[in-house]
Amino acid sequence: MSGHGDAQPMKSRKSGALKGVAEVPGDKSISHRSLIFGAMAVGETRITGLLEGQDVLDTAKAMRAFGATVTRLGEGAWTVNGVGVGGFQEPVDVLDVGNSGTGARLIMGTMATTPITATFTGDASLRKRPMGRVTDPLSLFGTRAYGRQGGRLPMTIVGAANPVPVRYTLPVASAQVKSAILLAGLNAPGETVVIEKEPTRDHSERMLLGFGAKLSVEKTSEGHVITLTGQPELRPQTVAVPRDPSSAAFPVCAALIVEGSDILVPGVSQNLTRNGLYLTLVEMGADIEFQNPREEGGEPVADLRVRFSGNMKGIEVPPERAPSMIDEYPVLSVVASFAKGKTVMRGVKELRVKESDRIDAMARGLEACGVRVEEDEDTLIVHGLGAGGVPGGAVCATHIDHRIAMSFLVCGLASKAPVAVDDGSPIQTSFPIFEGLMKGLGAEIERG
Ligand code: S3P
Question: Distance (Å, rounded) from C-alpha 153 to C-alpha 96?
Answer without folding.
Answer: 10
